[in-house]
Specification:
Layout (H helix, E strand, L loop, with lengths): L3 H8 L3 E3 L2 E4 L12 E4 L12 H13 L5 E5 L5 H8 L4 E6 L2 H13 L5 E5 L11 E7 L2 H12 L2 E10 L6 H5 L2 H4 L3
Parallel strand pairs: 2-3, 4-5, 4-7, 5-6, 7-8
Antiparallel strand pairs: 1-2
Helix pairs in contact: 2-3
């Protein structure tokens, strides 16, 4: 007999990712006041900061998000990206995910971080509020999902807004850049 939860919890270590200190609740706070703390208790949802695609977006967020930005977090997972955006100055965030456990986990992590201006819905782009537009759209999803979603996401992007994509390989660049919806941006 083994306590698998205890074994799993011991494998999750705090991490410094750019300006963020990401930790689960069972690990002590950092003494470093220069970092922005993100409390993320991972469950079944994607987004602990251990994956390179999540780390990349976390590193970009402080440079990309401006005070008052409205953010869309496509495929929100644990909510880590939307929470990070709010902690650096975004005024609100809307997230969606097709996995029910992601919605629940994101809401738990929002509460842990004292974030109330982040709404998460179960579903895909059909749950984005009609008529809404976003200054920044974050999408950390796989290549095939991104190819399908990019034209839909761009329809919600404000003029001059920023679409940040992660979950792609270097060899996917040409495929993404030759999408008609992306070429229309130039």
């Amino acid at each position: 007999p083994q306590n698998w939860n205890q074994t799993w919890e011991q494998s999750i270590k705090p991490q410094t990712i750019g300006r963020f200190y990401v930790r689960p609740t069972w690990v002590a706070e950092s003494d470093d006041q220069d970092h922005i703390e993100l409390l993320i208790d991972p469950k079944m949802a994607f987004g602990t900061g251990y994956h390179a695609t999540t780390r990349l977006l976390l590193e970009w967020i402080p440079e990309i998000i401006s005070e008052g930005d409205v953010v869309l977090d496509a495929g929100t997972g644990t909510g880590i990206l939307g929470i990070a955006a709010l902690k650096v100055g975004a005024s609100s965030a809307f997230g969606f995910d097709i996995d029910e456990w992601s919605k629940d986990n994101a809401e738990e992590n929002m509460e842990l971080n004292g974030v109330s201006n982040f709404q998460v819905q179960l579903g895909s782009t059909e749950v984005i509020p009609a008529g809404s537009t976003y200054d920044v759209i974050l999408a950390n999803i796989n290549r095939n999902a991104l190819i399908y979603l990019i034209p839909l996401l761009l329809s919600y992007l404000k003029k001059g807004g920023k679409l940040l994509l992660s979950g792609l390989l270097r060899e996917d660049e040409e495929t993404i850049l030759t999408l008609d919806s992306v070429k229309a941006l130039n």
